[in-house]
Amino acid sequence: MRIDKYIWATRLFKTRSLASKNCASEKIKLNDSFVKPSKTVVIGDNISIKTIPIWRSFTVVSLPKSRVGAKLVADYLIETTSEVDLAQLEQISFVNRHNKMLGIKGRPTKKDRRDLDALND
Question: What CATH number did the domain enclosing 75 receive?
Answer without folding.
Answer: 3.10.290.10
